[in-house]
Write a structure and sequence with these properties.
Elements (H helix, E strand, L loop, with lengths): L9 H5 L3 H20 L13 H12 L9 H4 L2 H16 L1 H11 L6 H10 L8 H27 L5 H16 L20 H16 L1 H8 L1 H4 L4 H25 L11 H13 L16 H13 L12 H15 L5 E3 L2 E3 L1 H28 L4 H12 L14 H16 L1 H8 L19
Antiparallel strand pairs: 1-2
Helix pairs in contact: 2-3, 2-5, 2-7, 2-20, 3-5, 3-19, 5-6, 6-8, 8-9, 8-10, 8-11, 9-10, 11-13, 13-14, 13-15, 15-18, 16-17, 17-18, 17-19, 18-19
Pfam family, one: TrkH
Membrane topology: Multi-pass membrane protein
GO molecular function: potassium:chloride symporter activity
């Protein structure tokens, strides 16, 4: 079957594995975005953005992170902001998803190889129903983004001209649903001007949460009325997400209740709303209604933990993912109880899942620790500030304590690589660099080693 996806060299591309195709595809999109952002028309001043800053911005947008070295709202022109918005949409849904959209519109068939790449991109265990899932991803995304854009436009029409309100509504709807965190309010303020606004807060939180749940879970929720049941994956994702948001709200509310640099001037309702928002946004969104640099160190470190956990598989977010975190907690509980099996909702999980969760967690920790150690040497800043920025980059969150705009050349390159690794996934990158080996034909004798 003919493939709908363009190829520079068909025979060369066919030799690439799905992980390699994904890595090169995202790299190509970032390069195109970099070149477009370097054009004089992309800036309001008419001057060209230097290559490193353009590369950083394109990487942050494509990897739906939100860390910025130049202020999006004041530096970029309408053309530049539109390029960023398109990069966010393509990066959030995945370039293979967007390519499938064009293929479906043109009524072209999806080849077996393209289905394999889609399976890898959506983190699925099989190709069964993958094209149907992509259709639903596109439909749900457009419906959610469109509805939220309309509501935000109506709200912001009270604060700005109608045309600007519509544009702001569209941009922020795409940015927040894809968990990118880019904003147009300027001066690195994000949504701090709307800390007491329940309408903006609730709409943005809805976008962040739905974008971070994953399209499989959204589809499962939509089908619940017909099936009257949820899959194990959806149950784990929904319960973990709810627990993390509630726990985060409580911790942030308690730690920041009397902090004059954050919530000290807010009334009780505003404090609850601000704590709720700051609990949701570390799930890889990047927007904030409080000054992150003004939070207490305990709160900042707690947000680092929330960012490290991140969103859920198959979503627009990053981090080690909620299912990985829950599986690790389940393994600890099972060990403490003296049980061999990990059971969630009366389902036993295979050991292979535990090994995968452990691998992802350790690789993520290794990457964050390594990058943080290097940046602590090159940047000469407080270690918590460096750890915060590094974790934000890996988890594609975009929250910042103010370090990113002041990064050195080495720092910008390192954060770019960290964002890229966080968006693609460490296992995908590992498989791209060294493809998976088949199962061994023999086993070594079992050995015993003292642990703990």
């Amino acid at each position: 079957m003919a493939s709908p996806f363009p190829r520079l060299n068909r025979f060369t591309i066919l030799k690439l594995s799905p992980p390699q195709t994904l890595v090169l595809g995202f790299a190509a999109i970032i390069l195109i975005g970099t070149l477009l952002l370097m054009l004089p028309v992309a800036s309001r001043s008419g001057h060209s953005l230097n290559f490193i800053d353009a590369l950083f911005t394109a990487t942050s947008a494509t990897c739906v992170t939100g860390l910025v070295v130049v202020d999006t709202g004041t530096y970029f022109s309408l053309f530049g902001q539109t390029v960023i918005m398109i990069l966010i949409q393509v990066g959030g849904l995945g370039f293979m998803t967007m390519a499938t959209l064009f293929a479906l519109v043109l009524k072209r068939k999806i080849s077996l190889r393209d289905r394999l790449i889609l399976q890898e991109a959506m983190n699925q265990n099989s190709m069964e129903g993958i094209v149907r899932l992509i259709r639903r991803v596109l439909i749900y995304s457009l419906m959610i983004e469109g509805s939220a854009a309309l509501l935000l436009s109506i709200r912001w029409a009270f604060d700005m001209p109608l045309g600007k309100a519509i544009y702001f509504g569209l941009f922020h709807s795409i940015s927040m649903f894809n968990n990118a965190g880019f904003d147009l309010f300027g001066h690195y303020r994000s949504l701090m001007g709307y800390v007491n606004d329940p309408v903006v807060n609730l709409i943005v939180m809805f976008l962040i949460v739905t974008g971070g749940l994953g399209f499989i879970v959204i589809a499962d929720i939509v089908d619940y009325r017909r099936k009257r049941r949820l899959s194990l994956h959806s149950k784990v994702v929904l319960s973990t997400t709810a627990a993390l948001i509630l726990a985060g709200t409580l911790v942030i509310f308690v730690f920041e209740f009397t902090n004059p640099r954050s919530m000290g001037s807010l009334n009780i309702g505003g404090k609850i709303l601000a704590a709720f928002f700051q609990s949701v946004t570390p799930r890889t969104a990047g927007a904030n209604t409080l000054d992150i640099s003004g939070l207490r160190q305990a709160t900042q470190f707690f947000i680092v933990i929330l960012m490290f956990i991140g969103a859920s598989p198959g979503s627009t977010g990053g981090g080690i993912k909620t299912t990985t975190f829950t599986l690790m907690i389940g393994a600890v509980i099972s060990m403490l109880r003296g049980r061999e099996d990990i059971v969630f909702f009366r389902y036993r999980l295979a050991q292979e899942r535990v090994f995968k969760a452990l691998t992802i967690t350790l690789l993520a920790l290794l990457l964050i620790v390594t990058v943080s150690m290097v940046l602590s040497t090159t940047e000469g800043r407080d270690f918590l500030e460096i750890l915060f920025e590094t974790t934000s980059a890996f988890a594609t969150v975009g929250l910042s304590m103010g370090l990113t705009p002041e990064l050195s050349l080495v720092g910008k390159i390192l954060i770019c690589l960290t964002m890229f690794a966080g968006r693609l996934g460490l296992l995908t990158l590992a498989y791209a660099l060294g493809p998976k080996q088949g199962k061994p034909l023999y086993q070594y004798p079992e050995g015993k080693m003292i642990i703990g």
